[in-house]
């Protein structure tokens, strides 16, 4: 398809998939999917000193968790160095680039002079029009872009609007360093062209690069892709999102118990909106997404809002699917392997699925769910927390002793008959239902708070429930 839209997500593998990067990946993915196009993945690993395979794996893992797939194999930028150099040879041949033999000391003097004259410290074009025959011996040159010195460069941005930069404010930037390695500015342009990128979607902090990269595209005689520079994400205090605000890596949210569909929904709403709607399935997002509805101002990351959104998705997710997400979370939290090993028993997994409808109504994250569900895998005799110990006084133990035989007499071990039996006992003894439920909760879970007591009885089953009650009553 000649006019197929092709976007790209191009992270640097120097760390995890930052939340801002995850949102950029999502916007690229949605725009491509909306138009029936492709999203490519490029690993910008030219900074070999800081790039690691561990970081690459973390980025791919984070994207996979969020459900953001890419077309084709990931492209390594460092593997394309020869293409970058070939583009510069083309520019040298057509006169849009030149070799500069300035020494580091000369460049320092240039900057100092500019500062003394209250000018921006830019390269002054010393070698712009000089003949290579004048080159001093023993100096490895850099290659610079021969940028236009008059007129202006225009970026018609799909989010920021028309951005005009006078060319006098743009200097002859370095394309190839003196050691022969390409710069980021050059590599990005060559890769975007060679990969057939039609739309560059990235953070607004790259807007200053857009004009410079436009000049490189033009110098090579290539079409300039359309651009969309999306607003940054700030912390709750309005400062740029950083580690001090909490988790900033996408995969950290999996360990914190958030669902990928909740994260996608939350991230898409950081900068994009569709009326007053809050909840969007992935199909809705693909259908509705456009840059007409992306604002220019920075978004604030609201952890409380994310938590509430996650609670909504937990309640509305089908139990077996939720169990799959829960297991993925447990695989990334301390002690989770013990719970996973317990769940590996088919009987135990069935118990979890029985308890899940009641559990998910009260939890906003999978971590909260784990804590609420922990009564399921605790071993007898249960160790009680302080609140439960306080409940289990002499009168409570007498109630538990009575309940052992009453509950054992319930033929149909399901919520409704169990509730009828417990309420009948409370009425007969003329005590409030809470005075019966609280000791029962403490005995069954070892906690002062728990999911609904009848849900707990059903999930544990007759034998385990009566055994736990007897442990405390005896």
Automatic annotation (TrEMBL):
NCBIfam families listed in its UniProt record: gltX_bact (TIGR00464)
Organism (species): Roseibium algae
Task of the protein: Catalyzes the attachment of glutamate to tRNA(Glu) in a two-step reaction: glutamate is first activated by ATP to form Glu-AMP and then transferred to the acceptor end of tRNA(Glu).
Classification via SUPFAM superfamilies: An anticodon-binding domain of class I aminoacyl-tRNA synthetases, Nucleotidylyl transferase
Top-level taxonomic group: Bacteria
Domain Aminoacyl-tRNA synthetase class I anticodon-binding per the UniProt entry, residue ranges: 340-471
Motif ('HIGH' region) on chain: 11-21
This protein's encoding gene: gltX
Protein name as annotated: Glutamate--tRNA ligase
Biased composition annotated in UniProt, kind: Basic and acidic residues: 113-133
EC number(s) stated in the UniProt entry for this protein: 6.1.1.17
Subunit structure of this chain's protein: Monomer.
Binding-site residues, ATP: 243
Keywords: Aminoacyl-tRNA synthetase, ATP-binding, Cytoplasm, Ligase, Nucleotide-binding, Protein biosynthesis
């Amino acid at each position: 398809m000649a006019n197929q839209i092709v976007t790209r997500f191009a992270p640097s593998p120097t760390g995890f998939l930052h939340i801002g990067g995850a949102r950029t990946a999502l916007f690229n993915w949605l725009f491509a999917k909306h138009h029936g196009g492709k999203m490519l993945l490029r690993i910008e690993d030219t900074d070999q000193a800081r790039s690691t395979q561990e970081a690459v794996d973390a980025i791919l893992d984070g994207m996979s968790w969020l459900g953001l797939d890419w077309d084709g194999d990931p492209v390594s930028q460092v593997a394309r160095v020869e293409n970058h150099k070939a583009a510069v040879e083309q520019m040298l041949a057509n006169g849009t680039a030149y070799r500069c033999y300035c020494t580091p000391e000369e460049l320092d003097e240039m900057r100092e002079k500019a500062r003394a004259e209250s000018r921006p410290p830019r390269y002054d074009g010393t070698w712009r029009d000089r003949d290579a025959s004048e080159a001093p011996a023993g100096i490895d040159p850099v290659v610079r872009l021969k940028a236009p010195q008059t007129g202006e460069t225009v970026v018609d941005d799909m989010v920021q609007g028309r951005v005009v930069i006078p060319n006098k404010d743009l200097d002859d930037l370095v394309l190839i360093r003196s050691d022969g390695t390409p710069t980021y500015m050059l590599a990005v342009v060559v890769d975007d062209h060679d990969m057939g990128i039609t739309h560059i979607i990235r953070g607004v902090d790259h807007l200053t690069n857009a004009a410079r990269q436009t000049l490189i595209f033009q110098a090579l005689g290539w079409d300039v892709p359309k651009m969309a520079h999306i607003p940054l994400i700030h912390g709750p205090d309005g400062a740029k999102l950083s580690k001090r605000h909490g988790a900033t890596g996408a995969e950290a949210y999996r360990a914190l118990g958030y669902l990928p569909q909740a994260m996608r929904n939350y991230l898409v709403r950081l900068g994009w909106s569709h009326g007053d709607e809050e909840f969007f399935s992935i199909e809705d997002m693909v259908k509705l997404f456009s840059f007409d509805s992306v604002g220019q101002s920075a978004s604030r990351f609201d952890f409380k809002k994310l938590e509430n959104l996650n609670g909504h998705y937990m309640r509305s997710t089908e139990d077996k699917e939720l169990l799959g997400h829960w297991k993925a979370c447990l695989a990334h939290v301390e002690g989770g392997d013990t719970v996973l090993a317990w769940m590996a028993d088919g009987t135990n997994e069935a118990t979890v699925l029985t308890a899940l409808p009641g559990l998910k109504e009260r939890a906003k994250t999978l971590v909260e769910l784990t804590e609420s569900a922990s009564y399921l895998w605790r071993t007898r005799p249960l160790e009680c927390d302080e609140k439960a110990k306080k409940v289990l006084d002499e009168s409570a133990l007498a109630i538990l002793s009575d309940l052992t035989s009453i509950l054992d007499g319930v033929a149909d071990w399901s919520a409704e008959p169990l509730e009828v039996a417990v309420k009948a006992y409370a009425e007969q003894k003329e005590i409030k239902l809470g005075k019966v439920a609280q000791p029962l909760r403490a005995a069954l879970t070892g906690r002062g708070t728990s999911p609904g007591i009848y849900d707990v009885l059903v999930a544990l089953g007759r034998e385990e429930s009566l055994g736990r009650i007897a442990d405390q009553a005896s």
